[in-house]
Amino acid sequence: MAKVDGPLMSLGARGKIGDAMVFFPWKGVNAVRRWLKPTQPNSTLQGYVRAAMSAIGKVISKIQSVSGGDAVDSALYALSTDKAPSGINWNAFFAQGFLNLLQSGGAFQTASLAAYVAAYSSLGSLVLTAFKTNATALGLVDFAFDYGYTANIEAGCQLYFGALGAFANELAASAPYNTNPNSWTDSDVNSFKTDFVAV
Question: Most buried of the four, 25, 38, 82, 184, by CB within 10 Å?
Fold first, then answer.
């Protein structure tokens, strides 16, 4: 049942009327929309999208920023904040860099996620070890979904996805951000990890 304030003057309303309309406040504006029955298809495509978003989200959660004190924000936070267009949060901008790589013609491509996982697995042994070691040091852990993309996404692969996003967003004109992570050395991966931490 909807709860209304000042019904004759339509000052505000919240809630659902039958299965027809939903009233809610949104960014200080009273809004109404058609009621849609929530669905959770757990489709293959949805599983792939969730796996990709979860992976890049876990990476973003490790980028440190500081509110007050003597410490300085991490380099990745500062670079993302400086580069993000007006109206886009730094974390959404960072994720967008990687997620855009998975699209073709404006649509998410399941094959793209599998291709980037395969590219990660084919990195040289020193670089692969550097991604794994630095991901563990940041606190990233492996995960897998039970539908859609069900293969294990290693912690190192998640960090690799973050590197792809930083490169795609052209966060800086200097190393390692001006080089595709497929060409990184182990020292580039170490530098990337260092940029996560506030100093």
Answer: 184
